[in-house]
Amino acid sequence: MTEGAAVRDDGDLPDDLTAAEAGMWQAFRNGSVYDLRDGDVTVDDPHGGHPWGPDRTVRARIVAWLLLAGPPALSGRVSSLKLVGVQIQGTLDLAGGTVEPYVEMKGCRFEKEILLPESRFTTLRMVDCSVPRLEAARLHTEGDLHLPRCRFHNGVRLADAHIGTDLLLNQAVVYRDRHGRSLSADGLTVAQDVQAEMMESHGELSLRGATVGASLSLRGSQLANPYGRLALNAPQLTVERTLYLTPAGVGNPLYTSGSTPARGTRVQRFVCEGGIRLDDGRFGDAVDLERARFTLTDEQELSLRRVQVPELRFLGEKPERGKVVLSGARVGTLIDEASSWPATGNLHMGGFQYETLVPRGRFPLATRLEWVAAATAEYNPEPYERLATVLRASGEDEGAREVLLAKQRHRRENLPLAGKIWGYAQDWTVAYGYRPGRAAVWMAVLWALTSYAFSHADHPPIKPGEHPNWDPALFALDLLLPVVDFGQAGSWQLQGGWQWLAAMVIVMGWILATTVAAGATRLLSRN
Q1: Whether the Cβ atoms of residue 449 and residue 472 lie closer than 8 Å to each other
Q2: Distance between CA 492 and CA 488 in Å, rounded?
Q3: What count of Cα atoms within 13 Å lies in the side-chain half-sphere of residue 220?
Q4: What value does the CA radius of gyration of the chain take, rounded to a whole number of Å?
Q5: Does residue 470 register a pLDDT over 80?
Q6: Which of 320, 168, 322, 337 has the alpha carbon at shortest distance from 231?
Q7: Residue 445: what pLDDT?
Q8: What are the angstrom distances between the C-alpha of 358 and each of 314, 367, 394?
Q9: Would you tell me how many other CB atoms lie within 10 Å of the CB of residue 96?
Q10: Where are its TM segments located (predicted)?
């Protein structure tokens, strides 16, 4: 494996190792940390431009030899590769291999890409390393894969990888590959948490069809993809607990490991410059967008089509451009702020279902109706009916009637002229039946006017000698109230125009009485 060099059964050093490699070999057998740092922070920075000489350089094939077929551990020791401040020369190729020793590299610099496709590890930790590219499709680890503070210059590929516990990418910086992707992790499976907090992604972060056994945290991360349409492409993502697109505390490690920053802590928001696609996602607890900032072009979207989640915390900054799409989404509780939603024409909620509304801050019904109108530039009754159903379920029957009234008014604007005129008449008189009190007032006014009018009408009896005394008020009331019979309307015969007036009163009576009865029925049902 090393051009003719061989390891004797007792694990002695091969003949062609450099001094740096010989030290690494012995540290591997001893299970100890192999630290080649200079002590100068500037020189030791793996991402800086200061060159590291032969005394800090080992060949990638010697590293691969140790990991795949290394010497036995010293008596009473466990072999492991723990490198600090080491430069690895050449391509580290472990494709298809099984690595049993524990691997941890800190502050290391890789000259070329790392190839881990189809390989198997117990645990792999790379911290604050400089790596041209990590190619690890179908990688399998029994434990963690830790890549915090690493910098990847040509992307990371973890497609169909299986991580036995946690995937850690906190404060990593990942640049795009030749396909425009920073992190390509389609089909990734992580048994527990994915923490990618305060990460920088320059390109498309792809998690299509990925599965996370606990939470996925992008707290404080900065995603940007000026080269394509999507900065986060994660349709059919499954997260058993919560997706966090929220702030992270700066300068306190406790706040980059899953905790919410305390009040007064300096924070870094989650910022996304480019579209987000979470279509058909399944989330066990919540999707949290608190204080998130989305910078979109007119063609880009924050797309949550058909997602299913018990709680959606839509509490980010209002996107100035682009669209927010919730079509077909199913949410148990919607927690939102009035200032978080985009303007009219940029919000789409066709088929959006939610069971409970929990507004944060002031969110009056008039503003909520503007929210619905923003999603229905072309008339669609569904968002109005969903809001009315939710309000009625929470005991706000009056609010529900206001929403349904707004629905009718929006519908009226799309009717032809005759329909608009009739709609305005219904609105002005009885508010489409959603304000029954107004119908009762109109009935009382109509009764008073017609009582006065009929007091001047000629009223010969239908059957002379078989009629009650003439009472214009009871006669008018007999015409106004359907079903109820006061014995007046059937006893007197009106002539000419008075007949037409009586017919109009009967029609108006049916309309107004039906409206009042419907309102009373709704009131009794609510009580």
Answers
A1: no
A2: 7
A3: 27
A4: 37
A5: no
A6: 322
A7: 84
A8: 11, 14, 11
A9: 13
A10: 498-524
